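User: I need a structural model of Release factor glutamine methyltransferase from Turneriella parva for a docking pre-check later this week. Nothing fancy, just the predicted structure tokens so I can convert them on my end. Input:
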Amino acid sequence: MSSNTLIEILRKGEAFLAQKLVASPRLEAQLIFAHFLKLRRIDLFLQPDRPLTPPELETLREALKKKAAGFPTAHILGEKEFYGRPFSVSADVLIPRPETEELVEHVLAEIKEANHIVDLGTGSGCIGLTLALELKAPHLTLIDISEPALKVAKHNADALLAGADTKYEILNADFTSGAVRLHPHADVIVSNPPYVLPEEFAALDAGVRDCEPRVALVADDFEEVHRRLIDCAFGNLAPAGLLAIETHPRYSQQVADWALGHGFVRVEVRNDLAARPHFVFAWR
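Assistant: Understood. Predicted structure tokens for Release factor glutamine methyltransferase:
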């Protein structure tokens, strides 16, 4: 049996990541091998004697070295699954997270149809695009202050909305500026704004702190960011429209109070699956 068979190289890759103290080394190695060999994970074990070519070996070697050096797997693969769909990601956007899928679940439990969905601080576009696809919304607006992030969002929109009836708009704007004016008004506005406090940044996992954009993570002035987000949403929501925010669990009740004080008629704080008060829902 060749020493370069798939299963032998996979086992060596798993051992290498374990030696480098990478968390879940078997899973990480399998994700990397499946992606670059264009296989399902199960196929890695259905084709154990498949010989790997020198270019494949080099590609896998470089990917494993990046993982051992602390690079997020999503950046190595160039994509991350979110709500069952592949989203392209880069160092210019946050990597989609499971708790944000929970935000989507909460919205879908409340909203059964929507004409216009808006994603403020869209990043990869994962929240807005997922909701537009699930609700078959005719209109979607993706807004971000970062042009590089919007390039990623546009790539995902072009790929995922191909063949769908949703028309989308990309808007390079700062939702804290007070200048965002949308027509038509939105039925649903969603946002995962920066909410990590500056003093918490250094303690973040190195893969997050060093590899994801600080501007999308950290709220240098938490209250200002959230009050301006609430103001932007209030001015751009249709009557009875919904604002859904993922925010800092420690301050979600304050965010809810700010929304209520701004004029939203009903506001709720909702927990994630870890029982943390992670989401704020406010109805116009």
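Before docking, keep this in mind: The beta strands are 79-82, 85-88, 116-120, 139-144, 167-172, 186-191, 237-246, 266-271, 277-283.
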